[in-house]
Structures are given as structure tokens and as C-alpha cells.
Amino acid sequence: MSISDEIMIETRHLRKEYPIEGDAVVALDDINLKIRKGEICCIFGQSGSGKSTLLNQLAGLEKPTKGGVRLGDTIISRLDESELAQFRQHEIGFVFQSYNLIPSLTAIENTAMPLMFQGMPRQERMARAASILKLVGLEDRMKHYPRQMSGGQQQRVGIARAFVNMPRIVFADEPTGNLDSRSTKEIMEMITRFSRRFHQTIVIVSHDPETAAYADHIVTLFDGRIIREEYQTPDLISVQAEHAVHASASSEDRHGAEHTDRKEKRVKKERGESA
Question: In what order do the strands lie in the sheet with 7-20?
């Protein structure tokens, strides 16, 4: 499906301050942002730019100091904690950098967890969890525990868990931060495919150009302010994502070759040979 003209997420004059030793540190300042339904939006910036704080605001995890946040028809900045919890259960999914899987639960049990909180009967939620685990290519890992899976496989479980209740919005906080370039490509293509298939809005926080290359809409933050917004066509996204992966792979190869060269020189020196 194509991106809709409907606005799914909107902030108006959003400001967030944190009191520190009698003073106020401004983390976000006058953020005005619109994200459309079905769009993949990357909040991009270096450490300390305010991108994680903005994600917390959009997901209703923190209250703004000033301004408001609207998701769909709901102004979530006006909801109390109980109302927010109910809203998140049905409308929002989360993907985390560190996976946040429960070690004592299998892949299918971790995936089904959000459905349990919704009160879905066990047989139905396990069937749905199995179905989405097949979509992420883990049909042979359903009964594996997190310790028995690679980082990439654990993140696939995290993605399955985020999408299992078909939320309208999925927030992903550095979803590829712990992965190599190959796994990053697989995870981002999977998130993109789900977004297009189910017409869901995805908001990704990242400092990685390789991840940002998959977005329709890139919002760059610096010192708590939006300094740039870019929109990309699907063809351009495909090209940029491919270039980003190649660049990352080339960098890994180069670092590997440099490491090998240094090791060979060290061995020769120890043997008294000429470098």
C-alpha cells in the first residue's frame, strides 16, 4: 500500500525540560512534526541530539513540559497513566536495541506476550504468534530460548512481538544498533516489508545512515531542535539503502584487512624479519 495523506502522528510546539540542580535543561525545543499514515520516519541524530527523548514523547512514555502530541485522533499528552497503558496495548508496538526478550520464555511465548495482556485466549494467541514468527523466518526457532539464538534472530523475535497485535504505530529505538551490516539489512528490509504490507506507521530512532536510508521521511535533530526534514521516493530509498549496506560492508572489510596487515607485520618483527 502507498503512504496515505492522513496524519497519524503530530506534535505542536513540543518542549521538554528536565530540572537539574535548580536549573532546567532543555531536551526538546519547539518541535512541530507531522508523520503520515503508512510512513517510515527516521528520527536521525547523534548522541545527545534529543532523538530518544522525542521518541519517548511520541510514545507517551514521558509527559511534555509544553505543547502536545496527537496519535491518530487521540491527544496522548492529555491521557493519564492508566489511559496511556490501555492505548499502548492496542495501538503501539515497540522494537528495542537490546531486544528486551524474557530469558525464561521461548520465542513463541515472547512473541505472544502482548496478546496475553489484551486478554486473548492462549490457543488463539499462540496461533497468531506462530503465524508471525513464520513471516520473520523463525518457524524452526519457535521453541528456542533467547540464549539459543543469535542477535539477529533475537531481533526478529522482537519485531514479531512488536507487530503481533497489528498496532497502528511501531516505535523502534536503534533496532539495528547491536547488529552487523548483513543483519541490519535483513532487519530493515523486514520492517519495511511489514510496514508496506500492513500499512503501519513506523518511527525509527537512529544515528546510523545505513538505517536512515530505508526511511520515507528523515527528521534530523540537533540540540533538541529539528534542523532538517527530507522526503524520499521508494526508488531512491532502495538505491540509498543498497549504497549504505555496501559502504558499511566495505568499511568492515577494510578494517579487517588493516587488522590482518598489522598482525602480519607484528609477527615478522617478532621473528626479526623485514617488514
Answer: 23-36, 7-20, 66-71, 74-75
Domain 7-256: CATH class, spelled out: alpha beta
Which one, of 35, 91, 88, 40, lies nearest residue 61 by Cα?
88
Q: What is the pLDDT of residues 218-229, one digit of tens each?
A: 999 999 999 999
pLDDT of 217? 96
d(CA 216, CA 176) in angstroms, rounded, equals 18
98-103 contacts: CB < 8 A, separation 24 or more?
98/178, 99/146, 99/151, 99/154, 99/155, 99/157, 99/158, 99/178, 100/158, 101/146, 101/154, 101/157, 101/158, 101/161, 102/146, 103/145, 103/146, 103/147
- Cα–Cα distance measured from residue 209 to residue 76, given in angstroms and rounded to the nearest whole number: 30
| pLDDT computed for residue 70 by the predictor | 97
Whether pLDDT at 58 is above 80: yes
